[in-house]
């Protein structure tokens, strides 16, 4: 189907490390990326994001499963769609002594893109005037934006960025985020992987959350956040000891943190106030807690015993 830019079913990859240990990096991944807009591909370090992206791009072979890009099975029919796809998986090589513009002009020539595209892509990535400066004088954020500009030369419909903000300062992160947002708004599909959920939350139209090589949740940011962590209410009250049993009797879960009670499970915040008031206890402060992707992620992975702390990057090598 062409309304999906990317789709995978049962995708699987096992690495064998130099010491002969088997590492299942991707275990039956079902991923759907709608065409148009920014899709956040989220998961902690080592959850299989890079491996999945490399399989999609035909850089490594899957052990099992199927993948499509714009409805075409890949890697079999990758040549038909490759011109519609731009990706940054590793830092691309540019000539340090040449300007950003010169580097892009050389690339445009190499791939047969019109020279006029160079000015356009510099503008699209807000490099504009700085295109005249030497590459070696660029900040990390500018280098990363030049890499994005290079992928834009051939006007791809799908852009795949693997952790594009790694190592950038807050200003650099903001610039990349704005670039992604404007690319998505132009109707392109941006598939961006990240382990920093808060970063993607602000630009993604839809997200997929993976843990240990498997899909844990997907949908719009609102759907994913709404589905987990729903109905938590933060309560400030003088007498914690007396309030806790009253709230647990109502069937809610209560936890004390930083002087506040966090009450899970109440359908409406007002139910919490009412229940306490009935027992002559009055809240000093009450606020619904909006779950962010970070807490959603922890909630989703907790059941799997795969919290972020438990996943440590394994030994690397082999075919990487
Ligand atoms: N070439 C390789 N040989 C052996 N194991 C590997 C290789 N590449 C990745 N792995 C392991 O596979 C698992 C998934 O790694 P992958 O890089 O795909 O995850 P990721 O979500 O992209 O994480 P990161 O953000 O750290 O790159 C990890 O346990 C990793 O150590």
Automatic annotation (TrEMBL):
GO molecular function: ATP binding; ATP hydrolysis activity
Source domain of life: Bacteria
Keyword Nucleotide-binding: yes
Keywords carried by this UniProt record: ATP-binding, Nucleotide-binding, Transport
Family annotation (PROSITE patterns): ABC_TRANSPORTER_1, ABC_TRANSPORTER_2
InterPro entries: AAA+_ATPase, ABC_transporter-like_ATP-bd, ABC_transporter-like_CS, P-loop_NTPase
Domain ABC transporter residue range list: 6-237
UniProt keyword annotation of ATP-binding present: yes
Family from the record: Belongs to the ABC transporter superfamily.
Name of the protein described by the UniProt record: ABC-2 type transport system ATP-binding protein
Originating species: Kribbella caucasensis
């Amino acid at each position: 189907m062409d309304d999906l830019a990317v789709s995978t079913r049962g995708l699987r990859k096992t690495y064998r490390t130099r010491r002969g240990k088997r590492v299942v990096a991707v275990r039956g991944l079902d991923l759907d990326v709608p065409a148009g807009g920014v899709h956040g591909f989220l998961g902690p370090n080592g959850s299989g994001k890079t491996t999945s992206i490399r399989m999609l791009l035909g850089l490594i072979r899957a052990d099992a499963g199927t993948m499509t890009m714009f409805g075409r099975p890949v890697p079999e029919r990758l040549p038909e769609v490759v011109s519609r796809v731009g990706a940054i998986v590793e830092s691309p090589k540019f000539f340090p002594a040449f300007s950003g513009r010169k580097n892009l002009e050389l690339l445009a020539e190499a791939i047969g893109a019109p020279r006029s595209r160079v000015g356009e892509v510099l503008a699209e990535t807000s490099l504009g005037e700085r295109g005249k400066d030497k590459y070696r004088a660029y900040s990390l954020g500018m280098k990363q934006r030049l890499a994005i500009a290079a992928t834009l030369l051939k006007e791809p419909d799908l852009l795949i960025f693997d952790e594009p903000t790694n190592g950038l300062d807050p200003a650099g992160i903001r610039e990349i985020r704005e670039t992604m947002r404007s690319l998505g708004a132009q109707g392109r599909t941006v598939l961006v992987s990240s382990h920093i959920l808060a970063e993607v939350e602000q630009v993604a139209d839809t997200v997929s959350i993976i843990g240990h090589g498997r899909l844990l949740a997907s949908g719009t940011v609102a759907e994913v956040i709404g589905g987990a962590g729903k109905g938590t209410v933060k309560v400030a009250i003088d007498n914690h000891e007396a309030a806790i049993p009253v709230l647990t009797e109502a069937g809610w879960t209560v936890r004390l943190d930083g002087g506040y009670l966090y009450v899970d499970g109440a359908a409406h915040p007002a139910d919490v106030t009412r229940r306490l008031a009935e027992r002559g206890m009055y809240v000093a402060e009450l606020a619904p807690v909006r779950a962010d992707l970070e807490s959603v992620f922890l909630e989703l992975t907790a059941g799997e015993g795969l919290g972020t702390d438990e996943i440590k990057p394994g030994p690397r090598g082999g075919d990487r």
